[in-house]
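## retry 2 of 3
previous attempt timed out at serialization; input unchanged, resubmitting
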Amino acid sequence: MKALKLAAIYNVIWGAWVILFPNAMFELLGMEKNNYPEIWQCVGMIVGVYGVGYWIAASDPYRHFPIVLVGFLGKILGPIGFAQALLTNRFPLAFGVIIIFNDLIWWPSFFNLLKEKYKRDKTFLA
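## retry succeeded, writing output
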């Protein structure tokens, strides 16, 4: 599916950017540099690895739906974590740009794939 391939490409590029330039996002947003860039680089690695999974899932999204499901859960939990950080003044609102592009824009495609899989096989979580 096209959306999974786009998500794959985006995730690999974003992950590589974070790994190679761990302070770039903080500098762009006018935030204090991360004291532990290795942790942020680890986030980049995880996002990049998700991209590899999405590319694999794109070949047959209904067969590889667990990859789509895990990705969708991450795309739901990421914004929840951001909201908590925003409410406790750990992140500025500007950091939400990451949430828009890493998570929110992918919700409809991932949701629709999972909904279609459920319609085809109502026991897919059993």
